[in-house]
Amino acid sequence: MLPCTVMVFGVRETILPKTTMLPGFARPFLALLLASISTPAFAGDVPLYQPAPAWIAPAPPLDSAVVAKGATVVLLDQQVRIETGTVTTYADTALRADTPEALTQLGTLSSVWSPDKGDLIVHRAIIVRDGNEIDLLAGRKFTVLQRERGLERRMLDGLFTATLPVSGLQVGDLLRFVYSVTRKDAALRGHAQELRPLIAAPTAVGFGRLRVTWPATERVRWQAGPKVVLPAPVRGSGGDMVLTLTLPLPKRDPVPDDAPSRFRRAPLFQVGDFADWPEVSRTFAPLFATDGLIAPDSPVAREVAAIMAASPDPRTRSARALELVQSRISYLLLGMNGGNYQPQTPAETWEKRYGDCKAKSLLLLSMLRAMGITSEAVLALLKGGDALSEALPMPADFDHVLVRAIIDGQDLWLDGTGASSRLADIADVPPLFHVLPLRPAGADLMALAWRKPERPNLQVTLTMDESAGIDLPVLVDGTMAFKGSSAAMLALAKAQSAPEKQAVLASAAMSAYFEDFNLTDSSISVDSATGISTIHVQGLLPAPWRFVRGGARLAMDMAQRMVKYTPDRARPMWRALPVAVTGPDTTEMTLAFKLPDGGKGYRIEGNPQFSGVLAGQILDRTMRLEGDGIVLHLRRDAPAGAEVAPADVATEKARLAQFRTRAPIVRAPVDAARYWEDGTPGRARFAALDAAYALVIARKPDEADGYADRARFRRATFDRKGAFADFAKALSIEPTVALYRERAAMREEDGKYDAAMIDVLAALDIDPANTQLAAARAHLLVKLGRKAEALAVRQEALDNAGTDRALVVARFAEMQAEAGETPAALAALDEAALEKPGNPEILNLRCWLRGTRQADPTAGLKDCTRAIELADLPGEPLDSRAMIYYRLGRMDEALADLDAALEGAPGQSGSLFMRGVIRAGLEQPEKARKDLAAARRLAPAVDRQYREFGIVAPF
């Protein structure tokens, strides 16, 4: 069969003729069985009813035990006869109706056939019940439905459908259907071919086999693979050659998904009488002969003349001819009247304005040759082409045809079923591995060599405006420009989809690179001249800076996302398998970061440039300071057919890991301005971000996420009234634990403990087993003077803690100390530390309580230091140790720890407050006032909190 490529919403699909010859069973493993015994096409407009042919070997009698309790597929007997260019297939299947659901699945026998290649011959259709046969054909025949089954998939296949209702089927019955099909395809010019998918364990079959016969005088070749051991054929009693394969095959070894497709293909049996690839080429060459196909002064001739008059350049002419075929001829598979292989003429194609890959290619080929451009038709396999060279030569190995043009010594691969191809893309190489040129003298398989495309499949150009401050969200504005099938899909979306659906596409496209992107506005534009469709986006990203000791840093190298390579070769049997690179694909990305303060003091660390091959992918990267920011440019090429050799799989993994660790970073100056330090009155400095959040909400006013995100932003930027309003709105739409907890924290900051308690209790209604919420409830009970109730809540949580007891102790420790039970809290933490030694949270809590409650501060130093060493983010244990040093009067050491804590967590309000207190004591009033003001802006209740520890700021 030669199915063709079709563009469905801009996405390329392989369309296969409908060939099912068995009942429409729904279970997945039965679908494979049905495919394995399906037959491509038949002839005669009604089924024939005859005995089985003499050449078949009847299946053995059915085993009564298997019939009663064995596999659902009791019998699967497939037999094939090849003789003088005719293929006859015989199938004898028996399936047990073992459930009530199966009665529906087996309720109708249906078969399809084409009326131009042979006959559908029904031999038997019976129900077997308790050893007795019920003849379904007694006084009945199949009903023939003449209808086009594939119109929804752009197919006119000419197939007829025959159906027979299965009357009286009961659970436990056996349904047996026996038929033959003859097929002789004139396009094969006396040749014959057959493909048979081979089922393998764990699919269960009572009796299964594939039996193939042919006259010993005929030249027949056969093979099966991958890793299928075939028995040698034997000469039968009538002088025929007979090859018999028992089914199912042994269970196949699993293969990882990232192995090349030749290792992942399902087992397949092939048989035919083509000697080699050149014979296939010679056989098909006449179907694509072009002499005399374009009549003088015909519509197609006039199109050719117009193209030639517009440009003398053969590449330009080829591109315009290709664009004409792609854009002005719609896709429709024509499989009737020999159409599986025989293309319709260019005149027919132009008149009807539709055609499949054969028709489009013949039209394009005729036009190119009429313009004097050297060209030929080539057969191709769209998927799995890396195994084509291992296949038995036959036309059925291919599912597509396109045109090869040779201009200035360069091969151009022109696909009439593609989309949006333009002159700039005409040299792009499709991912086909091999093609078979169709020539009267014959040709062998031809390998395709990949080359870098002139235009990327995707060009991303974004401006990332962070001029408001490194602690604030980023304003994003830019474009994502697509070519080819993706461009066609977007053009269709723009034409047919509502703006809301287009926005979903835009958000999804950005989320592929930026997971937390929040879209504020988008649009799609289509440039028919260039074949480019562009998504225009605006939106928000969370602040990308990471704060570590030494200051703020930004890892903005998107190459880490673009280069994907996660092979799994843990199993010994997989270590000999290469890793396939998903391609071809080319992506370019340009990110321009607009930095605060005009970029003053910002610098690039590490190697900003890279050019080389990583995990089979070609990567080029440059990063530079420019204007008021930094510009990053990336290009990733994933070549078609690229693989990482088995010996290099681990090496490439290590190289990629090293590449990622050495990615360049942007370092902010130590004195970079923080938004909480800015003296600008009102919210003028946040105006652009406020407007962006308003757009997010306007897009989805009935969803809670937009209000919740703006509530957090407003809270962080001191608009507490606005934050409360947004939290209320979000909670009215979708109450969640997180939202209740956040609003409870704000209410506690304002000293509204009763209101905070209402929120915590509401959260507990949603998640009653949440011990963090229980600890928050106990904490608020202490604030409300209800210490006994608070301790009771703690005890209840401990009673239900199970294996999490140590963590529950930690969550309630500070509340217990607030309730006046600091020694008991420390004793409980001692026990927890024994249960979970080396836990930095427990160590830090023990240190913190000793410092804040002045409970032997010296004893807390060891815990703090150990917690600092173990913590991923040491800001909190550094702050705790500073408290210990403060209690011990070691102010310089306390100040050093606070400085270190604020390098990694610059918004840690407690550290700012304590640094302000210590600086005031060291007679550094200006610095002290700055720290204390920042702490109070970030945490309005900070004075009240530290007053409980006996620490009061002097001003």
Write the layout of secondary structure elements.
Layout: E1 5-8, E2 11-14, H1 28-36, E3 48-49, H2 64-69, E4 73-83, E5 86-96, H3 100-105, E6 108-113, E7 120-129, E8 132-135, E9 143-146, E10 155-156, E11 160-165, E12 174-183, E13 193-197, E14 205-215, E15 221-225, E16 234-235, E17 240-247, H4 261-264, E18 268-272, H5 277-284, H6 299-310, H7 314-328, E19 330-331, E20 333-334, H8 346-352, E21 354-355, H9 357-370, E22 375-380, E23 400-407, E24 410-414, E25 434-437, E26 446-447, E27 458-465, E28 474-482, H10 484-496, H11 499-511, E29 518-527, E30 532-541, E31 546-548, E32 551-554, H12 559-562, E33 579-580, E34 585-594, E35 603-605, E36 610-614, E37 617-626, E38 629-638, E39 643-644, H13 649-661, E40 665-667, H14 687-699, H15 704-716, H16 720-733, H17 737-749, H18 753-766, H19 771-783, H20 787-799, H21 805-818, H22 822-835, H23 840-852, H24 857-870, H25 875-887, H26 891-904, H27 909-921, H28 925-938, H29 942-947
Parallel strand pairs: 3-7, 4-14, 10-20, 19-21, 27-34
Antiparallel strand pairs: 1-2, 4-5, 5-12, 6-11, 7-8, 7-12, 9-11, 13-18, 14-17, 15-18, 16-17, 22-23, 22-25, 23-24, 25-26, 27-28, 28-30, 29-30, 31-32, 32-40, 33-39, 34-38, 35-40, 36-37, 37-38
Helix pairs in contact: 7-9, 8-9, 14-15, 15-16, 16-17, 17-18, 18-19, 19-20, 19-21, 20-21, 21-22, 21-23, 22-23, 23-24, 23-25, 24-25, 25-26, 25-27, 26-27, 27-28
